[in-house]
Structures are given as C-alpha cells and as structure tokens.
Amino acid sequence: MRIRFPRAIPSANAWRLRLWAMAAVALCVFTLEGLTPRLLSGIEEGVGDTLWRFAAASAQADAQERRLVVVDIDEASLAKLGPWPWPRERLAELARRLAALGAGLQIYDVVLPDPRPGDAALAAEFARNPVVLAQIFALDPETPAALGRPLGALKPGAPPCRAPLPQATGFIANAPAFAAVEGLTAGHITPRVARDGAVRRLPALICFEGRAYPALGLAALLKAAGVESEWTLAPGSTWLDPAWRLTHPALPGIAVPLDGDGDIRLSYRLPRRAFVSMSAADVLAGQVPPELFRGAWVLIGATAFGIGDAVPTPHGGALGGVEVHAQFLAALLDGRLPHTPLGAPWLRLLLGLAGAAALLAALRVRR
To answer: What does the CA dihedral 137, 139, 141, 144 come to, rounded to 10 degrees?
Structure first.
C-alpha cells in the first residue's frame, strides 16, 4: 500500500519572500547597469577573453586559414636586411615577388608617410598589382596630426558622416606619391584600446572632413570584389540585432554588426597557428612554397619587437597588429563577427531572475 503525503502548499509569506527576492535581483541588475556599467563590462570582457582562449585551444591542430597568408617583417628579416624602415626599392621588390607568386591581393599593414627616394618606383609597382595600404586616424582632439594624404574615402553620403561614426581630428597617411596612383586604395588601422590595453574593437568607418574611410579589412574586401566604395548603415530592430549593421548592395552575403559607437567587435576564435606566416626575408630570397600564395590575400606587416606594432589581445601577451587584421578578415569572410545584442540589459535581467529562481528552488529542495 502506497502512502501519499499531501503536497505542501506555499504560504502567502513564502510567496511574498520569493517575490521580494526576485525584485531584489532585478534591482541589483538595474543598479549595476545604471551606476557601474564599467564593472559589468569588465566582467563580460573577462569572460569573453576566457571563451576566446578556450575556442583557440580547442581548435583542431591541423586547422589552417588558407585564404590569408601573413608576410612577417620579423626579427630575422631585420637581422638579414637591416632596420625598419626599409628602402622603397626593397618594398618594390617584395611587391614584385608577391605578384610573381600569384597573390590575389596585397594588403599592407604598414604606413609610409614620409616622402623618400624610390617613392615613384614603389608607386609604379603598386599600380601594377591589386594593393591596399594602411593609414591611421587620430580620434583624440589633443593629438592632431596631418602626415601624407588619406586614400580610400567612400562615396559621399554612403553612409552619411553622423552618429554613430566617430569623427577624426587628424591622420597619418601615405606619402603624396602613392595618393596619385589611380586605383590605389587604403584602409585605416585605428584601434579602440580598452582600459586594460587590449584591442577588442575596431571602428568600421571613421569620418574626416565629411568623408567616411573604411577599416583595412573592409577596404580589402571592396578591392577584391571590385565593387563601389560604399556601405549602407541601418539600425537594429529586434532584441537580438546589433545596434547597427553595415551592408553593401553588391555583397548580399556580407553583414557587419556594429555596436552603439560604430565599432566592430573582433573575433579571436582562431589560434595563431591557424595562420600561415612567412618571413619577409624568405619571400625576398625566393625560399617560400609558391602554392601557398596562389590566389591568397597576403597581409604584409611587422611583428619585430623594435618596430613597436605589438598590441595585447584576449589570447594573452601581445600580437603583431597584422595578426589582429588577419583574425578580422577571417571572421568577416566567414560571417562570424560577434556582437552585443540590443536586448543585452534585459537578457542579463532574465538571467539574473532565472539564477535567483534556481537558487530558491535549490534552497527549498535542501530544506
């Protein structure tokens, strides 16, 4: 014979206690959101960094990004060929070698602001190949600059230079000889540096004197696709949408999510070993396998300590800026750029209430 015990019916006081607990959780979440958003942001970024490191560590050992090849101006290159900056003739030879290897696109994560002997020869070599140069914009009004000439401005009004796009007060661009090359373009490499020094975000577009200039990866995408230099910027509409989204009428498969400041959140899912990296000295010496370069997008940048292009990332330590742009391009091509949804505050509240409900249920079971 089974004995059925009557189920305890919660008293009015018990229900009142639970409601007060839920209200306290909601109040705490809203207080943190309103008064200490940096605390929540710091916690989220720390958790995000841990997830990026876990994803990179769990990636398959043989996984490699074959669409991109990094040509590294590393310590060995400087030891063999001399300190940076190199003569323009050597850079022209590097561009010729990459073209002969069959590179589909040459993307330079270096800026050449000062006029130097050999500019004309290097500009002529750039004119013969699909090339994207780098440039930097100053977002701090206290550090204006005006070196070289900016390249690669989007068509006027595509999109308009207003919020959320940041406004630049100056620039470090390339020498005038390169600005005169027809068809040559550039993209900015201006990072957003977090309070802990890490680079997790990158402005998609930066406005200067009423014209918008795209990031290096976006400029490379437009150059490779051979489409008009324009983007369409639209706000998100649902809870799970980003604050803003960049699209291109000729690239229906590409959508770039932006946050409320007009920034791209960078993906660090791939480990460093996933990228094929060749020393610039080996490329110049003809000591690289040609099949790696055929049709690939080649990122030319520096990791040598003396050049000072290392930035902290969620992977820990410091990476060369060229590797940051490689991560961005890989995520852009795969359509896996992360974003914070518009409904993030409400989602945090729901998670907090769910956690409180689970805690109350656990206490009840224990009792």
So the answer is: -10
Map 143-198 to HEC letters.
CCCEECECCCCCCCCCCCCCCCCCECCEEECECHHHHCCCCCEEEECCCEECCCCC
The DSSP bridge pattern shows strands 170-172 and 192-193 to be: unpaired
Residue 170 backbone dihedrals phi, psi, to 5 degrees: -170, -175
The whole-number mean pLDDT for each consecutive block of 10 residues of the chain, a chain of 367 residues, reads: 51 60 58 56 62 61 82 93 93 97 96 94 95 94 85 92 94 93 94 83 95 97 94 91 94 93 91 89 95 95 73 64 90 91 69 59 60
- Burial profile 15-49: b = 16 or more Cβ within 10 angstroms, e = fewer: eeebeebeeebeeebeebbeeeeeeeeeeebeebb
Terminal Cα-to-Cα distance of the chain (whole angstroms): 27
- The pTM assigned to this predicted structure is 0.83
Residue 143's Cβ-count burial label (10 Å; 0-12, 13-18, 19+) is exposed
Who contacts 260 (Cβ-Cβ below 8 Å, separation ≥6)?
A: 164, 243, 244
- The C-alpha angle 298, 166, 142, rounded to 5 degrees, equals 100
C-alpha to C-alpha distance for 28 and 344, rounded to whole angstroms: 15
* H or E segment and range at residue 328: helix 321-334
- Per-residue burial over 234-255, b = 16 or more CB atoms within 10 Å of its CB, e = otherwise: eebeeeebbbbbbebeeeeebe
Side-chain-facing half-sphere of 361: CA atoms under 13 Å: 6
* 235, β-bridge pairs: 244
